[in-house]
Design a protein that fits this description.
Helices cover 40% and strands 13% of the residues. With 90 residues, it is α/β, with parallel strands linked by helices. The protein has a three-stranded parallel beta sheet with strand order 1-2-3.
Length: 90
């Protein structure tokens, strides 16, 4: 999936923000975290930001426990950035 995003970002170099809808990740696991981290890396390489939208409690907890809140930003329900000191979106 990150390769697809790299291709899309290469076609649209003006894109600076990628929003990834993650509400369907109701039972996220290690593979999901790996994929999201790879997407974040791909976005950074393309000089774009990746923001996760709709992160549920389990994903938020996993991001916090693994320290990935430092590199994966979440939007809160109001649409504002959830980068509030590394606290997970609830």
């Amino acid at each position: 999936m990150s390769e697809r995003m790299v291709g899309l970002l290469a076609e649209r170099p003006d894109v600076r923000l990628v929003i990834c809808e993650v509400a369907s990740l109701t039972a996220p696991g290690p593979a999901d975290l790996d994929c999201l981290a790879r997407l974040s890396t791909a976005a950074r390489r393309a000089e774009a930001d990746l923001v996760l939208r709709g992160a549920g409690p389990r994903l938020s907890l996993l991001l916090a426990l693994t320290g990935l809140t430092e590199v994966l930003r979440c939007e809160n329900e109001s649409g504002a950035d959830g980068a509030d000191g590394g606290q997970p979106h609830r």
